[in-house]
Design brief:
Layout lengths: L1 E5 L16 E5 L5 E3 L2 E3 L3 H12 L7 E6 L4 H13 L5 E6 L3
Parallel strand pairs: 2-5, 5-6
Antiparallel strand pairs: 1-6, 2-3, 3-4
């Protein structure tokens, strides 16, 4: 069962990003993070650097944050904080209940 919370922020100006540029940030139950399948640091500084490089300053690229329902909140909050600091305007949060 998949539950999604869509964060509805103001539309960014410019052309919409296509699916090829969408970013998937996955946080597993152990707090490990991957960005489009590539391992990234699970701390704010390292994650911010990795996401910033991937986004190249574009704040309208769709970012999906996917976390297992049992993932500790601190990792999810860290990821959300980084997205906010990078001014991400299209953030979707998905949680997967594995029970």
């Amino acid at each position: 069962e998949l539950t999604q919370l869509v964060v509805d922020l103001p539309d960014a100006e410019g052309a919409p990003a296509n699916a090829d540029t969408a970013v998937l940030l996955v946080v597993d139950v152990a707090g490990n993070m991957t960005l489009n399948g590539e391992p990234v640091p699970n701390n704010a500084r390292g994650l911010s650097a990795a996401m910033g490089e991937r986004l190249s300053g574009k704040t309208d690229i769709p970012v999906t944050l996917s976390a297992d329902a049992m993932t500790p909140h601190q990792y999810v909050v860290t990821a959300m904080d980084v997205a906010a600091q990078l001014n991400i305007t299209r953030l979707t949060i998905a949680t997967e209940n594995t029970r």
